[in-house]
Amino acid sequence: MCGITAIFAYRGDAVRPEELEAITARMIPRGPDAGGTWISPDGRVGLGSRRLAIIDLSAEGTQPMWDTRRELVIVFNGEIYNYAELRASLERGGVRFHSHTDTEVLLELYRRDGERMLGLLRGMYAFAIWDTRARRMFVARDPYGIKPLYFADDGRTIRMASEVKALLAGGGVSGALDPAGAAGFFLTGSVPEPFTIRREVRAMEAGTAFFVDAERGRGNVQRHFSIARVFRDATGDALVDPAVFVRERVDESVRHHLVSDVPVGVFLSAGIDSSALTQIASTHASKHAPLHTFTLSFPEFSEAPLAERFARETGTVQTTRNVTREEFLADLPRIFERMDQPTIDGVNTWFISKAVHEQGVKVALSGVGGDELFGGYPSFMNIPKMVRFARLPFASRAASLLSRHPKARLTGRYGRSYAGAYFLQRGLFLPDELPEILGEDVSREGLERLSPLAHITTALAPDPGTRFGRVAALEAALYMRNQLLRDADWASMAHSVEVRTPLVDAWLLRQLAPLLPNVRGKEVLGAALPDYLRTRPKTGFFVPMKEWLDLPPDGTTTRMRSWARRVWETFA
Hints:
The chain is of the alpha+beta class. Helix content is 43%, strand content 16%.
């Protein structure tokens, strides 16, 4: 796990060493264990890395890393969970390695398979490989977009890094506001990819790759994974017992996500997802490296008693971290300083990651993705219902007469499509509210460039084919990617902690997709849990900010809208 930097002056002047160093240094919390930079002899290419040592803790794992022939050099952020199997395959073909890292496996896979290598990888990743033979750079990001990668390309030089703020720290990229990113934040609570909050910076899209060379610059984007396509193409064995199959595949994913040369923990609430992961992971933990579990507790609200009881029963090393209003207020300036882009979430992950770091643990599993995978959100019922209702002849008039809520009155206008219904379901502010917040000009340009409904619709191409598949694709490609995964990344890496998400796994999705529309996945996942966890009402993983910041009391949406304005003040 690292923070990475790549600069390629494909038509520009030489890379400035001080810029490369400044970008890389900004990411020291992401990788406090080691760091390095490299600039090519002609000065056109620069790579930088900060390392959080997880696999092969020796100096051989330091990046930028060369292959044994010194023809390929890489900077890589993430983990490849099936690297041992891939390494064995390469060794059978005669490849020799100088380290035991997954990073070097990527180099040798690229040598053997080129861009086709991406179909073999199980993991989370963002990497750039400089090929001295072809004098071009290969850049790729994982299927779900768990690991971030941002770039600024001015037509002469492309600059890439794991953080938006890191790119700005180098001094070569303008910090001018992007109206599309600003509009997206207030509409949804996070900045929708590929936009960022800075006009010159773009997010590399999840599940894509591209080449950069001196002749053409940044080449065409190649899409190697699509959530919507997985659902569209889903086929399965009709003789499979769905419950058994789901449990076996989740168990397999957890085992892969436990690969590590350092102790591993789990974020444990009293919810189904984190409890099931804890239960499974505890069965695979070594007696010499017991599983650690971490729970947050607040004076205003606590799931700690149930989590602690479950931890005792599963034999984990439990840590309950109490967080007070005073600590929250003391941490708030640093939270905003490390928050890479505006978001209404992430504070919960900040404190649980802080607890993990305090105990000297570097890796933690998270239950993020369970609701998107198994249909745990109300949206899985609400959105199809809204679409059916909105398509009725009288829907628009009925909605305006029967409800005073602004969103309900817009059902006839937006609710006829899955994209529009999702927009209403997940929306924070409405488009006509933006001028008051951002001003007329910024609001107009932002909405024109973002085109919210068209943007949402891209998550449904190709059509997933079922109601469940459509909502699952929307939730995973939008809410989960832009908010949950991004927040998990910046908030955990601020404390030098790697978060792994066994339920956000492309291999797992491909195997389960044929079953998901017709199986109660949450019930299957929690079937082996004790009754006191399995039957309790669903609660969110949240911080009591209403009480701590005196936010308006009338409803969750109102509180989040007030918090969004507070966050915005630090970025505007």
